[in-house]
Amino acid sequence: MPPAAAGRDYVTSRESVEDPRLQQLVDGVVRLAAGDLDARIEPSEHRDDIDAVITGVNLLAEELGHIHSELEQRVAARTAMLRRTQVELEQMAKTDALTGLANRTLLTERIQEAILSCTDGGRAPAVLLLDLDSFKAVNDILGHSAGDAVLVEVAKRLRSAVRPQDTVARLGGDEFAILITAATEEEIIRIAHRASEYLQDSMCIGIETVWAMASIGVCVGKPGYRAEALMRDADIAMYQAKARGRNNVQLFHPEMLDAVQERSRITAELRTAVAGRELALLYQPVVELASGRVIGIEALLRWHHPVRGTIMPGSFIGIAEETGLIFELGRWVLHEGLAQMGRWNQTDPDLTDFCLHINLSAAELLRTDLLEDIRDTLARYDVDPRRLVLEITETVLMSRETGQEQVLSRLRELGVGLQIDDFGTGYSSISYLRSLPADTVKVDQSLIKDMGSDPRQQNFVSAILQLIFAAGLNATVEGIETAEQAAQLRAMGCLYGQGYYYGYPVPAAEIPYQLRQPARHL
Amino acid sequence: MLVDMATVASVSREARSIWSIPCGASRIALLGTSPVDRVLANFFLGVHIPPCPTRFFTSRSEALDWLNAVA
Predict the structure, then answer these.
(1) Closest partner CB to A55 (pick from B12, B33, B40)
(2) Residue A407: per-residue pLDDT
(3) Domain A104-252 coded CATH 3.30.70.270
(4) Distance (Å, rounded) from C-alpha A402 to C-alpha A365?
(5) Average pLDDT along chain A
(6) Closest CA–CA distance from residue B13 to any residue of chain A (Å)
(7) Separation CA A217–CA A224 (nearest Å)
(8) Does ipTM top 0.90?
(9) What's the CATH number for A279-516?
(10) Is residue A51 within 8 angstroms of chain B, CB to CB?
């Protein structure tokens, strides 16, 4: 603003020099600079240099406005794209790539959310754990792409068995999980059984028909139940389902936890049992039915627990096999049995006419040092290999693999006898009987249990004995408890037998006496 | 094609963009007299690439000479 009192001449001359358009230009540029990119200046009719500047500024402002809005659009598009990508990545990190189901991470998140939301008075969530029963076989026999197809189909069926608000997850391998939220125990069990049901139908994988059934463990949550506990207990219930024959649903009970803890305890104690001399062998005679002569003795393992008394093998062999302790146990039995033979050779050198029978488990056949161990131990106690008979169960011999095959034939080359144990309890094919690498077959006691009262059972046993003879093998029948059974078996042509009728399992000291007396006569 | 710019006050971006579309002319002469015309013409030429040779003239006869030089 020019000073007011400067004089008329000054004011007039300044007015005649200054073009009002210059002020408009300044205003316009200021507005543009302030960010108003829509600001424009009005050019006059003169079309002179000042108008040229005004026109230029307008055009530049328009350009600037366009560039600005283009830039904003592009930034918005990029941000949206990045956001979508981020969502996709999160999705991928929480999803199983093969089946599209939730993965363990997402499942755990959802379980925790469900637990939190139930504290405001809702129902606690339930977790189901599902393990496919024979998936390994599918993979091994049909290949991995068939295995994948099975998993995808299982995922589909499980999804259709649950409600929209439930989550189905794949935890890896052939393990699946289902989270059921806000449902009654009844509804939860219903969903679990539905899932099991949907898996009963076969599935077509290429040209093959495949079954993929599952062992299912259910844990219904309660207030205060944490996510890890839910998963752990569902897992325990699932193992129960497996133990109870697979393809079933088990609901978790606190007693199951006790069973798990019991197993851990037994395992720990079993380890010390071997070292702590808590194991012992009892011996039961095997007789020739006609003469009553004792031709063999079977070594039977007992565990003399310092607190719980005598424990039978049935209670701990299974756990030993699962934990690998079976190797130590097997080694101990072999050494102790042969050592005892050595002792008998010393104390009763005249008793040379009997064999020692020792049970061998499937796992032990896989021991790389088995052959050496047997050979060395026989040598150490100076026992003729032909006086050792190894009893191996039917199912093991049926499914033997090449490695095991070699071990068995090398054992026979040594002179060691092989006996098929528990015959009649497995699902064996008849034709294999002739090709088994064994000398004798021990018929399981379950086959003669009802022989006395049921004539058809008698015929059945007779036929089995004929079958065994026809295959060029000898038969020993186990579990003979009465004179009647003994007579019937003799009449059928059975040569050998074992059972309480002929003697109970007894300590080593009593054996020489048993060997000298003929067992009961008929 | 001779474009007389005498009455053009401003040309919007959209209008300018139409000049980039191929057209039948082999040459375009922009004829202007004032500084405003010069500014406008250069915005034409600078922001969008015309499909054929385009020049700014202040003399009508020079413009016509240049256009006819093609033929």
Answers:
(1) B40
(2) 84
(3) yes
(4) 11
(5) 88
(6) 8
(7) 20
(8) no
(9) 3.20.20.450
(10) yes
